[in-house]
């Protein structure tokens, strides 16, 4: 239901005095003249500009785009098209074991599809999840009947108008009724590049979300920023980050000059389980961990001063959410913590906040 997905109704935009232009994309940006040129030839002047151009699904060269049963998942129309293909008993091949691939696999199994999940790497969601959680998710998906194949290389697909099977480099053939490709996102930086703004893997910004051009800001999936002043640039492709940066860039466009210090985080629901993270969790092995109810686990990552930098939890239902929220408060507090207390499931995280 597209209406239910709208963040703000047209009537509300009108009440706020916001002019909403559609079907007339920006073709070029003039940072020196503070003007935009639209597709119909009109120009719009600006005093402050926010680039929130998002991204598009990354495509695979081995798979022709015209095949009617090959799906990417980024837009509302793509979601509707995929929904029609998830038929009980159908054979679904998913390429890529990031969160798109994993969540589609879980949903498809719940709908009775036969699911084969192909991943080029050695583990699930390897770029963003700790190894221990990745292996736990692998067990979870296999327990639910997903045929997970790791370290596989895609050769292409067989079929003319429709994909009839997926061909791997080692010669194996995987028959299919539908294919979902979930291999990441391509940020929409073309407008920024043409305008001469600094870019890397996204549009680069300072700690106040300003780009390299005066009066131009960037936010969301397309925004590349430093989590720490001494750290490298990164993009956060999460709902949480897009919302936080949208609010923060608006404040700074109004002259508040506030550094963006939001702690990153994300969650993913698969079957009856939820994986949730906050902060930075991938730089080292976990410093401490504790068992959670029903076989769940909570991992903690500390810096050299024993201050919490990140946490990752996997638990049944939404039971880990409270712990993750407390971990976020501990990250912000920057208080040295005891590893033995973090390891002890009887020691309340709320108690550590009082130390």
UniProtKB/TrEMBL annotation:
Residues 266-353 form the Reductase C-terminal domain. Its cofactor is FAD. One of its GO terms (molecular function) is oxidoreductase activity, acting on NAD(P)H. It comes from the Bacteria. Signal peptide: none annotated. Residues 17-246 form the FAD/NAD(P)-binding domain. Coiled coil: none annotated. One of its GO terms (cellular component) is cytoplasm. Keywords: FAD, Flavoprotein, Oxidoreductase. It holds the Pfam family Reductase_C. PANTHER family: APOPTOSIS-INDUCING FACTOR 1 (PTHR43557), RIESKE DOMAIN-CONTAINING PROTEIN-RELATED (PTHR43557:SF2). This is Pyridine nucleotide-disulfide oxidoreductase domain-containing protein. It comes from Pseudomonas syringae pv. actinidiae ICMP 18807.
């Amino acid at each position: 239901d597209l209406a239910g997905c709208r963040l703000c109704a047209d009537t509300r935009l009108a009440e706020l005095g916001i002019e909403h232009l559609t079907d007339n994309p920006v073709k070029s940006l003039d940072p020196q003249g503070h003007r935009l040129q639209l597709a119909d030839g009109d120009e719009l002047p600006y005093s402050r500009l926010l680039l929130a151009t998002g991204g598009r699904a990354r495509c695979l060269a081995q798979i022709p785009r015209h095949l009617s049963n090959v799906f990417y998942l980024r837009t509302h129309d793509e979601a509707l098209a995929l929904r029609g293909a998830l038929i009980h008993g159908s054979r679904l091949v998913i390429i890529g074991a990031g969160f798109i691939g994993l969540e589609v696999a879980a949903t498809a199994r719940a709908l009775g599809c036969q699911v084969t999940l192909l991943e080029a790497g050695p583990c699930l969601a390897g770029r963003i999840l700790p190894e221990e959680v990745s292996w736990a998710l692998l067990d979870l998906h296999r327990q639910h009947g997903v045929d997970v194949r790791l370290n596989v290389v895609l050769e292409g697909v067989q079929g003319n108008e429709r994909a009839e099977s997926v061909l791997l480099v080692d010669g194996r053939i995987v028959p299919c009724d539908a294919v979902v490709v979930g291999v990441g996102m391509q940020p929409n930086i073309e407008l920024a590049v043409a305008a001469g703004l600094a870019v890397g893997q996204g549009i680069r910004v300072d700690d106040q979300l300003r780009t390299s051009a005066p009066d131009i800001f960037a936010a969301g999936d397309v925004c590349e920023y430093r989590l720490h002043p001494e750290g490298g640039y990164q993009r956060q492709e999460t709902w949480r980050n897009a919302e936080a940066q949208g609010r923060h860039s608006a404040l700074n466009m109004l002259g508040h000059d506030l550094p963006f210090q939001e702690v990153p985080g994300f969650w993913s629901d698969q079957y009856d389980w939820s994986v949730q993270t906050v902060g930075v969790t991938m730089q080292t092995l976990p410093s401490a961990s504790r068992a959670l109810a029903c076989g769940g686990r909570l991992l903690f990552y500390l810096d050299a001063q024993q201050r919490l930098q990140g946490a990752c939890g996997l638990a049944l239902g939404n039971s880990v959410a409270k712990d993750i929220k407390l971990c976020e408060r501990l990250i912000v507090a920057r208080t040295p913590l005891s590893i033995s207390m973090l390891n002890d499931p009887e020691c309340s995280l709320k108690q550590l906040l009082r130390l």
